[in-house]
UniProtKB/TrEMBL annotation:
Gene3D superfamilies per record: 3.30.465.10, UDP-N-acetylenolpyruvoylglucosamine reductase, C-terminal domain, Uridine Diphospho-n-acetylenolpyruvylglucosamine Reductase, domain 2
Record-stated family: Belongs to the MurB family.
One CC-aspect GO term: cytosol
Active site per UniProt: R183, S260, E364
Documented EC number(s): 1.3.1.98
Name of this protein: UDP-N-acetylenolpyruvoylglucosamine reductase
Keywords: Cell cycle, Cell division, Cell shape, Cell wall biogenesis/degradation, Cytoplasm, FAD, Flavoprotein, NADP, Oxidoreductase, Peptidoglycan synthesis
Matching Pfam families: FAD_binding_4, MurB_C
Domain FAD-binding PCMH-type: 39-205
HAMAP family reported for this sequence: MurB
Cell compartments where the protein resides: Cytoplasm
Native source species: Antrihabitans stalagmiti
Keyword Cell cycle: yes
Amino acid sequence: MRGTLPFAVVLNPRLRAELTSAGAVLSEQVPLADLTTLRVGGPARVLAEASTTAALVATVRLLDAAGIPVLVLAGGSNLLISDEGFDGVVVRVANDEIRMDAASVSVDAGAEWDRVVAETVAAGLGGLECLSGIPGSAGATPVQNVGAYGVEISSLLTSVDLLDRASGDVRTVAPDELGLAYRTSVLKHSDRAVVLSATFALRSDGTSAPLRFGELARVLTADEGETRPAAQVRDAVLGLRRSKGMVLAADDNDTWSAGSFFTNPVVAEEDLSTVLSAIADRVGEVTVPRFPAPDGVKLSAGWLIERAGFAKGFPGVDAPARLSTKHTLALTNRGSARASDIVDLARTVRAGVHAAFGVTLEPEPVTVGLSL
Ligand SMILES: Cc1cc2nc3c(=O)[nH]c(=O)nc-3n(C[C@H](O)[C@H](O)[C@H](O)COP(=O)(O)OP(=O)(O)OC[C@H]3O[C@@H](n4cnc5c(N)ncnc54)[C@H](O)[C@@H]3O)c2cc1C
Protein backbone atom coordinates (compact mmCIF):
# COMPACT_ATOMS: atom_id res chain seq x y z
CA MET A 1 0.00 0.00 0.00
CA ARG A 2 1.26 3.46 -0.85
CA GLY A 3 1.73 6.08 1.85
CA THR A 4 2.79 3.84 4.71
CA LEU A 5 6.30 5.20 5.13
CA PRO A 6 6.96 6.23 8.74
CA PHE A 7 8.17 9.70 7.77
CA ALA A 8 11.08 11.02 9.79
CA VAL A 9 11.59 14.44 8.24
CA VAL A 10 9.49 17.14 9.87
CA LEU A 11 9.38 20.77 8.83
CA ASN A 12 9.13 23.04 11.86
CA PRO A 13 6.52 25.83 11.84
CA ARG A 14 9.14 28.52 11.41
CA LEU A 15 10.64 26.89 8.31
CA ARG A 16 7.15 26.38 6.90
CA ALA A 17 6.43 30.07 7.39
CA GLU A 18 9.71 31.06 5.75
CA LEU A 19 9.09 28.78 2.76
CA THR A 20 5.59 30.13 2.33
CA SER A 21 6.72 33.74 2.51
CA ALA A 22 9.45 32.89 -0.04
CA GLY A 23 6.65 31.98 -2.45
CA ALA A 24 6.60 28.17 -2.17
CA VAL A 25 3.19 26.53 -2.15
CA LEU A 26 3.33 23.60 0.29
CA SER A 27 1.26 20.41 0.31
CA GLU A 28 1.70 17.21 2.33
CA GLN A 29 1.77 13.53 1.49
CA VAL A 30 1.49 14.08 -2.24
CA PRO A 31 1.50 10.87 -4.34
CA LEU A 32 4.48 11.13 -6.66
CA ALA A 33 2.79 8.70 -9.06
CA ASP A 34 0.63 11.70 -10.00
CA LEU A 35 3.71 13.74 -10.90
CA THR A 36 5.67 11.24 -12.97
CA THR A 37 5.01 9.96 -16.48
CA LEU A 38 5.62 6.35 -15.39
CA ARG A 39 2.81 7.02 -12.89
CA VAL A 40 4.53 5.12 -10.10
CA GLY A 41 6.09 6.28 -6.86
CA GLY A 42 4.89 6.69 -3.27
CA PRO A 43 4.22 9.96 -1.51
CA ALA A 44 6.39 13.02 -0.96
CA ARG A 45 6.51 14.05 2.69
CA VAL A 46 6.06 17.63 1.45
CA LEU A 47 5.72 19.10 -2.02
CA ALA A 48 6.93 22.70 -2.43
CA GLU A 49 5.88 24.23 -5.72
CA ALA A 50 7.93 27.23 -6.88
CA SER A 51 6.41 29.14 -9.76
CA THR A 52 8.94 31.97 -9.94
CA THR A 53 12.72 31.88 -10.16
CA ALA A 54 13.00 33.88 -6.93
CA ALA A 55 10.77 31.38 -5.11
CA LEU A 56 12.77 28.45 -6.51
CA VAL A 57 16.08 29.91 -5.35
CA ALA A 58 14.79 30.88 -1.90
CA THR A 59 13.07 27.52 -1.35
CA VAL A 60 16.11 25.43 -2.14
CA ARG A 61 18.41 27.73 -0.12
CA LEU A 62 16.14 27.49 2.95
CA LEU A 63 15.84 23.71 2.73
CA ASP A 64 19.58 23.24 2.19
CA ALA A 65 20.38 25.50 5.16
CA ALA A 66 18.03 23.40 7.31
CA GLY A 67 19.58 20.13 6.10
CA ILE A 68 16.28 18.83 4.73
CA PRO A 69 16.54 16.26 1.90
CA VAL A 70 15.43 17.80 -1.40
CA LEU A 71 14.32 16.14 -4.61
CA VAL A 72 14.09 18.52 -7.56
CA LEU A 73 11.26 17.48 -9.89
CA ALA A 74 9.85 19.21 -12.94
CA GLY A 75 7.94 17.16 -15.53
CA GLY A 76 8.68 13.83 -13.83
CA SER A 77 9.40 12.23 -17.21
CA ASN A 78 12.85 10.92 -16.38
CA LEU A 79 12.30 9.69 -12.83
CA LEU A 80 11.62 6.26 -11.35
CA ILE A 81 10.66 6.82 -7.70
CA SER A 82 10.24 3.97 -5.21
CA ASP A 83 6.89 2.88 -3.81
CA GLU A 84 8.04 4.22 -0.43
CA GLY A 85 8.13 7.74 -1.82
CA PHE A 86 10.46 10.51 -0.67
CA ASP A 87 11.01 11.42 2.95
CA GLY A 88 11.89 15.06 2.41
CA VAL A 89 10.70 17.95 0.30
CA VAL A 90 10.07 17.53 -3.39
CA VAL A 91 10.66 20.94 -4.96
CA ARG A 92 8.57 21.29 -8.08
CA VAL A 93 10.19 23.57 -10.65
CA ALA A 94 7.35 25.63 -12.12
CA ASN A 95 8.81 28.96 -13.28
CA ASP A 96 7.84 29.12 -16.92
CA GLU A 97 8.67 32.27 -18.84
CA ILE A 98 9.96 32.06 -22.42
CA ARG A 99 11.94 35.01 -23.83
CA MET A 100 12.78 34.99 -27.53
CA ASP A 101 14.87 37.35 -29.61
CA ALA A 102 16.01 37.31 -33.24
CA ALA A 103 18.30 34.31 -32.90
CA SER A 104 17.99 32.82 -29.43
CA VAL A 105 15.57 31.77 -26.74
CA SER A 106 16.02 32.02 -23.01
CA VAL A 107 13.65 29.89 -20.98
CA ASP A 108 12.84 29.41 -17.34
CA ALA A 109 13.64 25.92 -16.10
CA GLY A 110 10.03 24.96 -15.47
CA ALA A 111 8.79 25.86 -18.97
CA GLU A 112 7.34 22.85 -20.74
CA TRP A 113 9.97 21.82 -23.25
CA ASP A 114 7.67 21.07 -26.15
CA ARG A 115 6.01 24.48 -25.71
CA VAL A 116 9.47 26.02 -26.11
CA VAL A 117 10.05 24.05 -29.31
CA ALA A 118 6.57 24.84 -30.68
CA GLU A 119 6.82 28.56 -29.94
CA THR A 120 10.29 28.98 -31.41
CA VAL A 121 9.35 27.09 -34.56
CA ALA A 122 6.12 29.11 -34.89
CA ALA A 123 8.18 32.30 -34.53
CA GLY A 124 10.34 31.24 -37.49
CA LEU A 125 13.34 30.16 -35.44
CA GLY A 126 15.00 26.85 -36.29
CA GLY A 127 17.28 24.55 -34.34
CA LEU A 128 15.12 22.79 -31.74
CA GLU A 129 12.68 21.02 -34.11
CA CYS A 130 14.31 17.57 -33.89
CA LEU A 131 13.68 17.71 -30.13
CA SER A 132 9.91 18.08 -30.64
CA GLY A 133 7.57 16.00 -28.53
CA ILE A 134 10.01 15.27 -25.71
CA PRO A 135 8.10 15.55 -22.43
CA GLY A 136 9.31 17.45 -19.39
CA SER A 137 10.87 20.80 -18.74
CA ALA A 138 13.44 23.07 -20.37
CA GLY A 139 15.56 23.07 -17.19
CA ALA A 140 15.98 19.30 -17.27
CA THR A 141 17.32 19.28 -20.83
CA PRO A 142 20.93 20.04 -19.81
CA VAL A 143 20.71 17.49 -16.97
CA GLN A 144 20.93 14.55 -19.36
CA ASN A 145 21.88 16.45 -22.50
CA VAL A 146 18.52 15.58 -24.02
CA GLY A 147 18.75 14.32 -27.55
CA ALA A 148 16.68 12.85 -30.35
CA TYR A 149 16.75 12.41 -34.12
CA GLY A 150 20.38 13.41 -34.47
CA VAL A 151 20.39 16.55 -32.27
CA GLU A 152 21.48 16.99 -28.66
CA ILE A 153 20.88 20.17 -26.71
CA SER A 154 24.65 20.51 -26.26
CA SER A 155 24.81 21.72 -29.87
CA LEU A 156 22.45 24.65 -29.18
CA LEU A 157 22.90 25.52 -25.51
CA THR A 158 24.81 28.76 -24.93
CA SER A 159 24.44 29.21 -21.16
CA VAL A 160 22.63 28.04 -18.06
CA ASP A 161 21.73 30.03 -14.97
CA LEU A 162 21.93 27.81 -11.96
CA LEU A 163 21.79 27.84 -8.20
CA ASP A 164 25.02 26.38 -6.89
CA ARG A 165 23.79 24.51 -3.83
CA ALA A 166 27.21 24.29 -2.17
CA SER A 167 27.71 28.07 -2.09
CA GLY A 168 24.09 29.22 -2.40
CA ASP A 169 25.17 31.49 -5.29
CA VAL A 170 23.33 31.99 -8.55
CA ARG A 171 25.77 31.73 -11.45
CA THR A 172 25.70 31.79 -15.23
CA VAL A 173 27.74 28.92 -16.60
CA ALA A 174 28.89 28.01 -20.09
CA PRO A 175 27.98 24.60 -21.51
CA ASP A 176 31.58 23.40 -21.31
CA GLU A 177 31.36 23.54 -17.50
CA LEU A 178 28.50 21.05 -17.55
CA GLY A 179 30.27 17.95 -18.86
CA LEU A 180 27.54 17.36 -21.43
CA ALA A 181 27.89 13.92 -23.01
CA TYR A 182 25.60 11.17 -24.27
CA ARG A 183 22.53 11.33 -21.95
CA THR A 184 24.51 12.75 -19.08
CA SER A 185 26.16 15.81 -17.53
CA VAL A 186 27.72 16.75 -14.21
CA LEU A 187 24.18 17.68 -13.07
CA LYS A 188 22.75 14.16 -13.49
CA HIS A 189 22.69 11.98 -10.35
CA SER A 190 23.94 15.00 -8.42
CA ASP A 191 22.58 17.51 -5.92
CA ARG A 192 25.14 20.14 -6.78
CA ALA A 193 22.91 22.64 -8.64
CA VAL A 194 19.42 23.61 -9.67
CA VAL A 195 18.99 24.86 -13.21
CA LEU A 196 17.01 28.12 -13.13
CA SER A 197 17.00 28.95 -16.84
CA ALA A 198 18.74 28.03 -20.07
CA THR A 199 19.55 29.88 -23.27
CA PHE A 200 19.75 28.31 -26.73
CA ALA A 201 21.12 29.74 -29.98
CA LEU A 202 18.66 29.37 -32.87
CA ARG A 203 18.60 29.76 -36.65
CA SER A 204 16.93 33.01 -37.64
CA ASP A 205 16.24 31.84 -41.22
CA GLY A 206 13.67 29.32 -39.98
CA THR A 207 15.53 26.30 -41.34
CA SER A 208 16.12 23.17 -39.35
CA ALA A 209 19.40 21.97 -37.97
CA PRO A 210 21.14 19.81 -40.61
CA LEU A 211 19.38 16.44 -40.74
CA ARG A 212 21.60 13.75 -39.28
CA PHE A 213 19.17 10.91 -38.62
CA GLY A 214 18.56 8.58 -41.55
CA GLU A 215 14.97 7.66 -40.72
CA LEU A 216 13.98 11.33 -40.39
CA ALA A 217 15.83 12.36 -43.55
CA ARG A 218 14.04 9.61 -45.49
CA VAL A 219 10.60 10.76 -44.27
CA LEU A 220 11.49 14.26 -45.47
CA THR A 221 13.00 12.96 -48.73
CA ALA A 222 16.19 14.78 -47.82
CA ASP A 223 19.82 13.75 -47.86
CA GLU A 224 21.60 13.61 -44.54
CA GLY A 225 23.22 16.98 -43.87
CA GLU A 226 20.49 18.92 -45.71
CA THR A 227 18.10 21.26 -43.93
CA ARG A 228 14.35 21.73 -44.29
CA PRO A 229 11.89 24.32 -42.93
CA ALA A 230 11.83 23.82 -39.15
CA ALA A 231 8.02 23.50 -39.05
CA GLN A 232 8.14 20.66 -41.59
CA VAL A 233 10.78 18.83 -39.57
CA ARG A 234 8.81 19.31 -36.35
CA ASP A 235 5.74 17.70 -37.96
CA ALA A 236 7.81 14.79 -39.24
CA VAL A 237 9.46 14.23 -35.87
CA LEU A 238 6.11 14.30 -34.06
CA GLY A 239 4.74 11.76 -36.56
CA LEU A 240 7.67 9.40 -36.05
CA ARG A 241 7.56 9.79 -32.27
CA ARG A 242 3.81 9.11 -32.11
CA SER A 243 4.22 5.91 -34.13
CA LYS A 244 6.65 4.72 -31.42
CA GLY A 245 4.54 5.82 -28.42
CA MET A 246 7.09 8.50 -27.63
CA VAL A 247 4.64 11.40 -27.31
CA LEU A 248 2.64 11.43 -24.07
CA ALA A 249 -1.02 10.48 -24.47
CA ALA A 250 -3.16 9.77 -21.40
CA ASP A 251 -5.21 7.13 -23.22
CA ASP A 252 -2.19 5.23 -24.56
CA ASN A 253 -0.43 3.06 -21.97
CA ASP A 254 2.51 2.68 -24.32
CA THR A 255 3.37 6.27 -23.37
CA TRP A 256 3.17 5.72 -19.59
CA SER A 257 6.91 5.46 -19.48
CA ALA A 258 10.11 7.35 -18.88
CA GLY A 259 10.93 7.21 -22.60
CA SER A 260 13.84 4.97 -23.44
CA PHE A 261 14.56 3.08 -20.24
CA PHE A 262 18.13 2.06 -21.08
CA THR A 263 20.87 4.07 -22.72
CA ASN A 264 22.59 2.64 -25.76
CA PRO A 265 25.61 0.77 -24.37
CA VAL A 266 29.10 1.84 -25.37
CA VAL A 267 31.41 -1.13 -25.73
CA ALA A 268 35.19 -0.58 -25.51
CA GLU A 269 37.00 -1.37 -28.80
CA GLU A 270 38.90 -4.23 -27.12
CA ASP A 271 35.66 -5.92 -25.99
CA LEU A 272 33.80 -5.52 -29.27
CA SER A 273 34.86 -8.78 -30.93
CA THR A 274 33.69 -10.80 -27.89
CA VAL A 275 30.30 -9.10 -27.96
CA LEU A 276 29.96 -9.52 -31.73
CA SER A 277 30.73 -13.23 -31.49
CA ALA A 278 28.18 -13.64 -28.68
CA ILE A 279 25.64 -11.96 -30.99
CA ALA A 280 26.63 -14.22 -33.92
CA ASP A 281 26.32 -17.32 -31.71
CA ARG A 282 22.81 -16.35 -30.75
CA VAL A 283 21.31 -14.82 -33.88
CA GLY A 284 23.69 -15.81 -36.66
CA GLU A 285 25.73 -13.53 -38.90
CA VAL A 286 23.76 -10.28 -39.00
CA THR A 287 24.57 -6.62 -39.44
CA VAL A 288 24.78 -5.22 -35.94
CA PRO A 289 23.79 -1.54 -35.73
CA ARG A 290 26.76 0.34 -34.30
CA PHE A 291 27.91 3.92 -34.15
CA PRO A 292 31.23 5.53 -33.26
CA ALA A 293 31.37 6.89 -29.71
CA PRO A 294 34.12 8.85 -27.89
CA ASP A 295 35.20 5.84 -25.79
CA GLY A 296 34.29 2.87 -27.93
CA VAL A 297 31.41 1.72 -30.11
CA LYS A 298 27.78 2.46 -29.32
CA LEU A 299 25.34 -0.40 -29.85
CA SER A 300 21.55 -0.14 -29.98
CA ALA A 301 19.95 -1.13 -26.65
CA GLY A 302 16.59 -1.77 -28.34
CA TRP A 303 18.17 -4.05 -30.95
CA LEU A 304 20.01 -6.05 -28.25
CA ILE A 305 16.86 -6.37 -26.13
CA GLU A 306 14.87 -7.76 -29.06
CA ARG A 307 17.67 -10.13 -30.11
CA ALA A 308 17.96 -11.36 -26.51
CA GLY A 309 14.39 -12.59 -26.86
CA PHE A 310 12.26 -9.77 -25.45
CA ALA A 311 9.54 -8.88 -27.91
CA LYS A 312 7.43 -5.73 -27.85
CA GLY A 313 4.78 -6.14 -25.14
CA PHE A 314 6.91 -8.57 -23.08
CA PRO A 315 5.97 -10.35 -20.80
CA GLY A 316 2.34 -10.32 -21.95
CA VAL A 317 -1.07 -8.75 -21.59
CA ASP A 318 -1.68 -9.59 -17.93
CA ALA A 319 1.52 -8.01 -16.62
CA PRO A 320 1.16 -4.61 -14.88
CA ALA A 321 4.51 -3.49 -16.35
CA ARG A 322 5.40 -4.40 -19.93
CA LEU A 323 7.68 -3.38 -22.72
CA SER A 324 5.81 -0.93 -24.92
CA THR A 325 3.93 -2.62 -27.73
CA LYS A 326 5.44 -0.01 -30.09
CA HIS A 327 9.03 0.32 -28.86
CA THR A 328 11.12 -2.30 -27.08
CA LEU A 329 13.19 0.26 -25.25
CA ALA A 330 10.30 1.75 -23.26
CA LEU A 331 9.17 0.09 -20.04
CA THR A 332 5.54 0.96 -19.51
CA ASN A 333 2.88 0.98 -16.81
CA ARG A 334 -0.31 -0.68 -18.06
CA GLY A 335 -2.40 1.06 -15.40
CA SER A 336 -1.79 -0.70 -12.09
CA ALA A 337 2.00 -1.04 -12.01
CA ARG A 338 4.01 -0.08 -8.98
CA ALA A 339 7.64 0.99 -9.02
CA SER A 340 8.60 -2.53 -7.94
CA ASP A 341 6.94 -3.96 -11.07
CA ILE A 342 8.94 -1.60 -13.29
CA VAL A 343 12.13 -2.56 -11.42
CA ASP A 344 11.40 -6.30 -11.79
CA LEU A 345 10.87 -5.89 -15.52
CA ALA A 346 14.02 -3.77 -15.87
CA ARG A 347 16.07 -6.38 -13.99
CA THR A 348 14.69 -9.21 -16.14
CA VAL A 349 15.53 -7.41 -19.38
CA ARG A 350 18.93 -6.33 -18.16
CA ALA A 351 19.83 -9.84 -16.97
CA GLY A 352 18.60 -11.36 -20.24
CA VAL A 353 20.73 -9.02 -22.36
CA HIS A 354 23.74 -9.63 -20.15
CA ALA A 355 23.30 -13.40 -20.30
CA ALA A 356 22.92 -13.32 -24.09
CA PHE A 357 25.66 -10.87 -25.07
CA GLY A 358 27.70 -9.96 -21.97
CA VAL A 359 26.55 -6.33 -22.25
CA THR A 360 25.25 -4.49 -19.17
CA LEU A 361 22.50 -2.01 -19.91
CA GLU A 362 22.34 1.13 -17.79
CA PRO A 363 19.07 2.85 -16.92
CA GLU A 364 18.51 6.29 -18.43
CA PRO A 365 15.98 7.63 -15.87
CA VAL A 366 17.15 8.84 -12.48
CA THR A 367 16.12 6.39 -9.76
CA VAL A 368 15.04 7.62 -6.32
CA GLY A 369 14.97 5.29 -3.31
CA LEU A 370 15.73 2.21 -5.39
CA SER A 371 18.32 0.79 -7.71
CA LEU A 372 18.41 -1.91 -10.32
C1 LIG B 1 7.44 9.39 -23.72
C2 LIG B 1 8.83 9.91 -23.39
C3 LIG B 1 9.75 10.18 -24.40
C4 LIG B 1 11.01 10.67 -24.09
N1 LIG B 1 11.89 10.93 -25.10
C5 LIG B 1 13.13 11.41 -24.85
C6 LIG B 1 14.05 11.68 -25.90
O1 LIG B 1 13.74 11.52 -27.08
N2 LIG B 1 15.28 12.13 -25.57
C7 LIG B 1 15.66 12.35 -24.29
O2 LIG B 1 16.80 12.77 -24.06
N3 LIG B 1 14.81 12.11 -23.26
C8 LIG B 1 13.56 11.66 -23.51
N4 LIG B 1 12.69 11.38 -22.48
C9 LIG B 1 13.13 11.59 -21.09
C10 LIG B 1 12.69 12.94 -20.49
O3 LIG B 1 11.56 13.45 -21.13
C11 LIG B 1 13.79 14.00 -20.54
O4 LIG B 1 14.93 13.54 -19.87
C12 LIG B 1 13.34 15.31 -19.91
O5 LIG B 1 14.31 16.30 -20.15
C13 LIG B 1 13.09 15.21 -18.41
O6 LIG B 1 12.50 16.43 -18.01
P1 LIG B 1 11.62 16.51 -16.70
O7 LIG B 1 11.32 17.95 -16.48
O8 LIG B 1 10.46 15.61 -16.81
O9 LIG B 1 12.64 16.00 -15.59
P2 LIG B 1 12.28 15.20 -14.27
O10 LIG B 1 11.86 13.82 -14.59
O11 LIG B 1 11.38 16.01 -13.42
O12 LIG B 1 13.72 15.15 -13.59
C14 LIG B 1 14.74 14.34 -14.18
C15 LIG B 1 16.05 14.59 -13.43
O13 LIG B 1 16.47 15.93 -13.64
C16 LIG B 1 16.53 16.64 -12.41
N5 LIG B 1 16.02 17.99 -12.66
C17 LIG B 1 14.83 18.32 -13.22
N6 LIG B 1 14.75 19.67 -13.33
C18 LIG B 1 15.89 20.16 -12.82
C19 LIG B 1 16.41 21.48 -12.64
N7 LIG B 1 15.73 22.56 -13.01
N8 LIG B 1 17.63 21.63 -12.08
C20 LIG B 1 18.35 20.55 -11.69
N9 LIG B 1 17.93 19.28 -11.83
C21 LIG B 1 16.71 19.10 -12.39
C22 LIG B 1 15.66 15.84 -11.43
O14 LIG B 1 16.10 16.02 -10.09
C23 LIG B 1 15.89 14.43 -11.91
O15 LIG B 1 17.10 13.95 -11.39
C24 LIG B 1 11.40 10.90 -22.74
C25 LIG B 1 10.48 10.62 -21.72
C26 LIG B 1 9.20 10.13 -22.04
C27 LIG B 1 8.23 9.85 -20.93
